[in-house]
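I am still getting used to backbone structure tokens and would like to learn alongside you. Label the sequence line and the structure token line clearly, so we can match residues to local backbone shapes. Go ahead whenever you are ready, and we will take it from there:
>
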Amino acid sequence: MTGNAMYRTDDELTERVERFKTGFEHAVRGIAEVVQGKEEQIRLALTAVFAGGHLLIEDAPGVGKTLLARSLAQTLGGVFQRVQGTPDLLPSDVVGTEIIDPETGRLRFRPGPVFANVLLADELNRASPKTQSALLEVMEERQVTVGTATHEVPSPFLVIATQNPADFESTYTLPDAQLDRFMIRLSLRYPDPEAEIAMLRGHRDLRGPGKVARAIPEAEIRDYQETCRRVHLSDFAYTYIVELTGRTRTMEELERGASPRAGIALMRAAQVRAASEGRAGVTPDDVQDLAPAVLGHRLVIKPDFAHGSFTAADAVAKAVRAAPTASSSGWWSA
């Protein structure tokens, strides 16, 4: 069964979902003109954006991580800031610090790059663990505490972080608490031959990649996010998400499974996936398709299994197979 007639919803929500679907596809096409051959990853990235989550892009150098992050920032408009992860980057270089005002002689807060709508933390895992941890508060609570004062960051607020694989030189492993704050992790992988040829043609005259043509107005972003939050979930949908994340916590291969925060992230992402396809309600496929990108980076494999062939993707697939799905009637009932 397909179509909005399945959902217990009003005409207003149906219209809003259709508007969001149109806007989502427009954003995908705009970014795809710059980041070629990566439509699946672009859709995942935008899912994190409209679900109000943060995005982690992991892959080898030179495959377009920063280009995708910049293109997302251009799509969202607003204030954009960038920090480059280096071993000597300090927490105050990221969140800001207190300085003495020469005119008054009093302490004054000087905001850091996090006071933006979009923060690109490039090669975050090259920064020291202390500096990485400086992002924990702002990613979760949208505020920064310096000294005794708390400062709120602008809204909407999105952290897009890139990181190199852990086996690269001069990298530090991101702490589990920070990984858990990223809604989605994606990998770009190497482009296919056609996309790489198009990339070469685009760089032939030294102009490099273009820019996204249109930024989405801030008010429109807020409206899209609110639309996605209103997408319907049945009682079984809630139960299924809890069952799925719970399976990872009892898996013998895992030292640590998905947190309750992971379940919230999976729910929010599934709502965006449904709306982006013009549906006002979440389906099992929405949850299952997004589970690898939302859950995979949060799972810790036991050392006895980590050196074998068992991966986080295997753990998610195992949880999906084990969690019971329902009949159509069971899923759609409110």
Residues 88 and 104 are 31 Å apart (CA to CA). The two ends are 16 Å apart (CA to CA). The chain has two domains: 15-230, 231-334. The longest strand covers residues 158-163.
